[in-house]
Amino acid sequence: MIKIMAVNAGSSSLKFQLLEMPKEVVITEGIVERIGLNDAYYTIKADGKKDKQVLPVKNHAVAVNIILKDLITKGILKSLDEVGAVGHRIVHGGEKFAHSILINEEVEKNIEDLCDLAPLHNPANLIGIRAFKEVLPQIKQVAVFDTAFHQTMAKEAYEWYEKYGIRKYGFHGTSHQYVAQEAAKVIGKPLEELKLVTLHLGNGASIAAIKNGKCIDTSMGLTPLEGIPMGTRSGNIDPAIVEVVANKENLSVSEVINILNKKSGYLGVSGVSNDSRDLESGVANGDERCSLALDIQYKRIADYVGSYYVLLEGIDALVFTAGIGENSPRCRSQVMNRLKVLGVEEDVEANNVRGKTTLITAPESKIKAYIIPTNEELVIARDTLKLISK
User: Fold this and answer.
1) Which pLDDT tens digit goes with each residue over 128-179?
2) Within a domain: 167
3) Is there a single domain that holds both residue 216 and residue 356?
């Protein structure tokens, strides 16, 4: 038996699970949300109870230190030496990494070199790696790449590939892979016989078309900026906008891209927050900009699902997952209502649930829709165990 820490650093969050492997027993799990804000949320499950705190968390390094200290304080670990290995979700693997890999100095440097392609995530992923290396310098660490699952996409998705390695990479691969496998179990058919569209909707959001168990297209591209609008990302825009704004505001291209990554999406349109919960509260209070920010995203989600319906030549099931997909009945309802033309019929009562595997469409619905909670940490732990056992 070995205790493995699976770390999943998002753009504004850090999830973790401490698992006993290979039994796949979760010893404890938790999440730090709203990183970068003075009212961040830190939640940890211990002794069957949830302990939640609101506290300032300046950055991901602070979040890592809070978690490690708390594991000892709560007696979950007597010492950090009990941790046998750490697995990290890494968003961008570029051309270098098509599979999970043990982390060494060269791997760390290559991940750092890819930061420009995932500026909200790879730096946060590296902070996690380096924080654990500082506390436990001898521990084996494994990188599990978001881009790996999407390597099955056809070359028609590539652009300027031979010269610069520019192509559609796709992200949230561990999540899309996991919920697709779980959907097959729930539906009761082999994954190889299903046409699925998986919707990973969180502060970062992406959609994948999965046919016969393989990803054939996904909404994110060379970087996580492509696709639907998200917490702070714009998603797809007319590329000429970059030049127009750069000239009007006297900014460099890099500065404009930084705005599109960090100050757009929910945050830019609403002017309020990058958190969907804040926006839904704003809608309830009649805030039109909050409503607009959400409506733009719902419309874009439906656009992608419609295009994937054509690509897949039909859809057996939609899968909603991640923070918003699992916990926002409003989001799911709005998306399903926009897909009525494809025969999607919401079961309103069934949809009024959070974070639980549930069929949320009516019996007459031509396409089934499910909530399936993701478990990227379990995928990370499995790959970590596999590599450190070799």
Assistant:
1) 888 888 888 888 999 999 888 887 777 665 567 777 778 888 889 999 999 9
2) no
3) yes
Residue in 228, 215, 189 with CA at minimum distance from that of residue 322: 228
Tokens of 9: 């650093």
The dihedral through the CA atoms of 254, 300, 212, 186 has a sign that is: positive
**220 with 339, same domain?**
yes
Scan for tokens 């031979």, then name that residue. 162
322: closest CA among 309, 334, 333, 331? 331
Q: Which two tokens stand for residue 344?
A: 């999607």
Query: Any idea how long the chain is?
Result: 390
Query: In terms of residue numbers, what domain contains 312?
Result: 188-371
> What CA–CA distance (Å, rounded) separates 121 from 249?
27
Whether 299 is in a domain gets the answer yes
Q: Residue 320 in contact with residue 196, Cβ under 8 Å?
A: no
The CATH number for 50's domain is 3.30.420.40
116 and 59 in one domain? Answer: yes
- Nearby residues of 218 by Cβ (< 8 Å), 6 or more positions away: 150, 153, 168, 170, 171, 176, 206, 207, 208, 209
Q: Report pLDDT digits (tens) over 213-228.
A: 999 999 999 888 999 9
Using the predicted structure, report yes or no on whether residue 91 has a pLDDT greater than 90. Answer: no
Beta strands across the sheet bearing 368-371 = 214-218, 205-211, 195-201, 317-321, 368-371, 358-359
> Catalytic site residues?
146
Alpha-carbon 178 to chain mean position: 12
Provide the domain count of the chain: 2
Is 359 within 8 Å of 239 (Cβ atoms)? no
Q: How far apart are alpha carbons 282 and 263 in whole angstroms?
A: 18
Write the pLDDT tens digit of every residue in 269-297. Answer: 999 999 999 999 999 999 999 999 999 99
Q: Which of these three, 115, 145, 175, is where a domain ends?
A: 145
143 phi and psi, to 5 degrees? -100, 125
